[in-house]
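Risk register update: the risk of archive-format incompatibility is retired. Evidence:
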Amino acid sequence: MDKKYRIHEFGALVGRSTKTLRRWDKEGHLVAKRTFSNQRYYDDSDVRKVLQLEEKIERKNVVYCRVSSRKQQKDLKSQLDAMRTFCLGRGVAVDQWITEIAGGMNFKRPKFLALVTNILQGKISHLYIAHKIGAFWV
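Archived output:
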């Protein structure tokens, strides 16, 4: 049977304040269980939930290069070369290189859309993009 923790005990156990735990309860991030007298309490399953929430997501440095058509393969290679030089010059360790041949005016770019999803999920630390006036990073 799981041990029951009062809010201050649970907060000390997981390294969070009672104020944070109350906010999580209100926002639905970690809903506290309640006694018959309406007092919050937590158990070992809640400890596991919080520890899983705090698992660090490995964040990557990513370079994205794109051209509009296959005729621009030479331009794509030039972008990659420029980005290698840029990243090496700044001491950036690149985890992933993404190249794509797709038009820039529509959202039919699967690699780009996957990249945006990874950014929204917090999986990307820095994104480096080649541009005709230089390299940019976000």
